[in-house]
């Protein structure tokens, strides 16, 4: 079974649009998301455009602020502080990666925790690991929604996550653990990775290498979630971290690239923006 994140996210966005349509009468306005894009990296431009389009579908006000990659760290931090203080702004997202002269850590911790729609702020991360109410990072949140939508039982399963990033690997491992999976996190120094991944009943791949996971690394019946967004070195087309054509026949459930995890990330960003908005109303 191929699970379409595109379809699920379209359905969830339609539900959110209905919810948001009731906000002006109830709260006097709609949620407002500000996205900051530094520089003109084509992938980042495309992601930011996707976020603006989804906002339009859901009825969320979106402001995209574009800055040249020559912006100083202090200028960017000042902009964030201004948005923190602006009562008409509910969510702030700074598109990553940032130019080398700007500290991502400083940027993330400057965003007010209450407006951190990415769930990257250290206080949100700490809250996640302590099972406290928090904003959960969009991609991991979307992955759990996809698994549940596909009817996958997570509890008691052996889950292997390839990749240990703050954005995907670590938080998705924690969410799978919270769903009572037995979780192993694999990475570039893992010894005999194929042996480990063959034991996985749920395999989440977020390593950023085109077609890294091959058929011999996957057992019959495995649930495969591909987080990769790569350019095929030969064709230039989008491809995942999983060799889809080879792995799909063995997998019980698999996500395509594009149209799998990606749309769910944006969908969860919309959800997080609404959550931040609602928390600020109460
Ligand atoms: N760059 C790649 N993924 C993400 C994400 O989820 N949020 C932000 N802010 N930047 C990203």
Automatic annotation (TrEMBL):
Molecular function via GO: methenyltetrahydrofolate cyclohydrolase activity; methylenetetrahydrofolate dehydrogenase (NADP+) activity
Pathway: One-carbon metabolism; tetrahydrofolate interconversion
Tetrahydrofolate dehydrogenase/cyclohydrolase catalytic domain mapped to chain residues: 3-118
Parts forming coiled coils: none
Keyword terms of this UniProt record: Amino-acid biosynthesis, Histidine biosynthesis, Hydrolase, Methionine biosynthesis, Multifunctional enzyme, NADP, One-carbon metabolism, Oxidoreductase, Purine biosynthesis
GO annotation (BP), single: methionine biosynthetic process
SUPFAM superfamilies, A to Z: Aminoacid dehydrogenase-like, N-terminal domain, NAD(P)-binding Rossmann-fold domains
Similarity field: Belongs to the tetrahydrofolate dehydrogenase/cyclohydrolase family.
Classification via PANTHER family: C-1-TETRAHYDROFOLATE SYNTHASE, CYTOPLASMIC, C-1-TETRAHYDROFOLATE SYNTHASE, CYTOPLASMIC-RELATED
Entry function: Catalyzes the oxidation of 5,10-methylenetetrahydrofolate to 5,10-methenyltetrahydrofolate and then the hydrolysis of 5,10-methenyltetrahydrofolate to 10-formyltetrahydrofolate.
The protein's name in its UniProt record: Bifunctional protein FolD
Organism: Candidatus Cryptobacteroides faecigallinarum
Lineage of source species: Bacteria, Pseudomonadati, Bacteroidota, Bacteroidia, Bacteroidales
Gene: folD
